[in-house]
Design goal:
GO molecular function: transferase activity
Order of helices and strands: EHEHEHEHH
Organism: Eiseniibacteriota bacterium
Keywords: Transferase
Radius of gyration: 15 Å
Largest sheet: 4 strands, parallel
Protein name: PTS EIIA type-4 domain-containing protein
Pfam families: EIIA-man
Number of helices: 5
Distance between the termini: 41 Å
CATH topology: Rossmann fold
Strand content: 5-15%
CATH class: Alpha Beta
CATH superfamily: Phosphotransferase system, mannose-type IIA component
Shape: globular
């Protein structure tokens, strides 16, 4: 199985910060690009994403921050017609690290489903004193 490619597309500096934090936990990550919507029009961001996903032969993941935001919408539009590309929205640090750990073992659709579960499981409440 080949490694599932991905790009992080998030508002302002969030993608770069997430990539930096994940690199501290996971180790060097040199094959994931962090894209920002900062200073780009909707068409410009869509074109930038499309230029990246257009070379993916077996699909991949566009990882975004906010459902319905410009990064999500442009990612979905850019992915059209490029095969098995899934946009996963609401990505956080646990989700992204899980992606890094599993991108060599799972196909695109299974990996996307796993990341959604991981994201949901990573949000928890802590009330009262810590154990």
């Amino acid at each position: 199985m080949s490694r599932v490619p991905a790009i992080l597309v998030m508002h302002e500096g969030l993608a770069a910060a997430l990539l930096a934090a994940a690199s501290r936990l996971y180790g060097p990550v040199d094959d994931i690009e962090a894209l920002s919507n900062g200073g780009l029009s909707r068409d410009g961001l869509e074109s930038l994403i499309e230029s990246r996903v257009g070379s993916w032969r077996e699909g991949g993941l566009v990882l975004t921050d906010v459902w319905g935001g410009s990064c999500h919408v442009c990612g979905a539009l850019a992915a059209r017609g490029h095969g098995d590309i899934v946009v996963v929205t609401g990505v956080n640090l646990p989700t992204f690290v899980d992606f890094l750990h599993n991108r060599d073992q799972l196909p695109v659709q299974e990996l996307a489903d796993r990341l959604v579960r991981k994201g949901q499981e990573s949000i928890r409440l802590q009330r009262g004193p810590h154990p």
